[in-house]
Amino acid sequence: MGILDGKRILVTGVLTESSIAFAAARLAQEQGAEVILSSFGRQMKITTIIAERLPHPATVIELDATNEDDLAALPERLGGNIDGIVHAIAFAPKDALGGVFLDTPFESVSNAVHVSSYSLKAIAVAAKPVLNPGAAIVGLTFDATVAWPAYDWMGVAKAALESTSRYLAKYLGADGIRVNLVSAGPLKTTAAKSIPGFEAFEDVWGTRAPLGWDQTNTEPAGKAIVALLSDWFPATTGEMVHVDGGLHATGA
Ligand SMILES: NC(=O)c1ccc[n+]([C@@H]2O[C@H](COP(=O)([O-])OP(=O)(O)OC[C@H]3O[C@@H](n4cnc5c(N)ncnc54)[C@H](O)[C@@H]3O)[C@@H](O)[C@H]2O)c1
Q1: 15 lines ligand 1 (CB under 6 A)
Q2: CB-based burial, 156-192: b 16+ in 10 Å, e otherwise
Q3: pTM of the predicted model, to two decimals?
Q4: Which among 125, 126, 234 is positioned nearest to 178, based on CA atoms?
Q5: Are 100 and 86 within 8 A, CB to CB?
Q6: Helix intervals (H) in 3-118
Q7: Which of 9, 90, 113, 243 shows the greatest Cβ crowding within 10 Å of its Cβ?
Q8: Residue pLDDT tens, the chain, 252 long
């Protein structure tokens, strides 16, 4: 018996086996869920190939989080009601990352916020007609309550995501829909590798995380996502659960 038995879950953001969303999809299937993946554009092919490495088959549907047609078609593409959504989507243009904070043009900031923050609201609202009562939405952040080296406007986009999740929790609570975030420590995924200077975090986590931290292991984040999707957090919404080896709780 699994904690997601009988649930249908949309998992966005599977790009490679190292994607946090891949761990979430694998663990969700292991816990009894039917998983539907979403991808977009040229990445659709890659996601379809990677999906074959999951324990069970998973349909891949098209969902560019910034495309209004994809959003409008989401309920139909899902082919039935769902019980949860994993939002594992982020993007920022090169000139918004890596120590260029003071020079980033607004267009790039707007792009980062559209894909990485507003998309949580856009997907939640698009899927709302097919979200069952008791459904859970889980997103991923990199704790944006402080300023990090290199993270720049992605940090600002994450702050917006964190606030968006609290407002969604407020507006969707009456429908019995929970909205929570997992704040993961640094993991060597495609998105992380595209941030110049992201290596700087390795030393910080290596020396400061009380439980230690393995940047190649997405399973702890995946487990937290699955737990939040399950019925075992029935009264938790608008929350941000740190899965960072405890680093957030230390001062130096
Ligand atoms: N890797 C880390 O260190 C880390 C830490 C904390 C939080 N996160 C967050 O975890 C989430 C997943 O990222 P990841 O690290 O697994 O990297 P990843 O590169 O595997 O996943 C990022 C995903 O975003 C998707 N994406 C980008 N633009 C999109 C769009 N317009 N529409 C739909 N999908 C789009 C990509 O297809 C990709 O699948 C992101 O929100 C990321 O910010 C990552």
Answers
A1: yes
A2: bbbbbbbebbbebbeebeeeebbbbbbbbbbbbbebb
A3: 0.98
A4: 234
A5: no
A6: 20-30, 43-51, 68-78, 106-113
A7: 9
A8: 899 999 999 999 999 999 999 999 999 999 999 999 999 999 999 999 999 999 999 999 999 999 999 999 999 999 999 999 999 999 999 999 999 999 999 999 999 999 999 999 999 999 999 999 999 999 999 999 999 999 999 999 999 999 999 999 999 999 999 999 999 999 999 999 999 988 888 889 989 999 999 999 999 999 999 999 999 999 999 999 999 999 999 998
Q: Backbone phi, then psi, for 224, in 5-degree steps?
A: -65, -40
Cα 1 to averaged position of ligand 1 atoms, centre (Å): 30
Radius of gyration of the chain (CA): 17
CA 109 to chain centre: 19
